Amino acid sequence: MNKCRKTAYLLSKKQDETRLTVPERVFLGSHLLICPHCREYKKQLDLIHKAMKKMF
């Protein structure tokens, strides 16, 4: 699995209220530091998540 795909998977897993393991959190944090595309994807996911919470 490439790093950006793994990051997208972990971000989705985290949004589903699932606790990430320590290695997953380390991977996610370090990848988000270096990848502007994944940081933008995270911002979009956060925005969608907030909008859904307001709707329901």
Written overview of the protein:
This protein has 56 residues and is mainly α. The protein has one domain. Helix content is 82%, strand content 0%. The chain contains three helices and no strands. It has helices at residues 3-15, 22-34, 36-55. The N and C termini lie far apart (34 Å). 7% of the residues are buried. The model has no long low-confidence stretch (mean pLDDT 95).
Label this structure with key terms.
single chain; 56 residues; mainly alpha; 3 helices; globular; Zinc-finger domain-containing protein
Count of alpha and pi helical runs: 3
Q: State the distance separating the first and last CA atoms.
A: 34 Å
Number of domains: 1
Name the overall outline: globular
Helix content: over 70%
Calculate Rg over CA atoms.
Answer: 12 Å
Protein name: Zinc-finger domain-containing protein
Organism: Neisseria sicca ATCC 29256
How is this fold's topology laid out?
Blueprint: H1 3-15, H2 22-34, H3 36-55
Helix pairs in contact: 1-2, 1-3
Organism: Neisseria sicca ATCC 29256
Protein name: Zinc-finger domain-containing protein
